[in-house]
Amino acid sequence: QVQLVESGGGLVQPGGSLRLSCAASGSIFKIYVMGWYRQAPGKQRELVATITSDGSTNYVDSVKGRFIISRDNAKNTVSLQMNSLKPEDTAVYYCNADLQPERWMRRDTYWGQGTQVTVSS
Asked: For residue 54, how many other CB atoms are within 10 A of its CB?
């Protein structure tokens, strides 16, 4: 059974930094894409950043130049370095992985439980 576990959320002042990490564990044959999504109160969940197995990245426009996504394929982990944080970055951040649990199984999407990020003075 696949599990994604996030860590690193918390309270930070505007302009500050936080680093989120996510580790995938369990039966994993291959991870294709890993990413971070977020959901603010009263809003839909939105994509923040994704990274493929070969390191290609994609960011939502609102975080470009401030957030950096990285990945360790050997450890099945993905991180999100968040700099110059703004109050509008406040949300629950979810780790996401598009992976194949076993060679004979199809690809599927898995989610972590979420970690709260609050940007406030």
From this structure: 7
Answer for the pair 49, 62: CB distance below 8 angstroms, yes or no. no
- At 61, phi and psi to the nearest 5? -55, -35
For tokens 């564990």, the residue is 25
At 52-72, the pLDDT tens digits run 999 999 999 999 999 999 999
Inter-CA distances, 121 with 7, 30, 117, 118, Å: 22, 41, 13, 10
| Residue owning tokens 């703004």 | 86
Sign of CA dihedral 121, 114, 31, 47: negative
Mean pLDDT of the chain: 97
- What pLDDT does 16 receive? 98
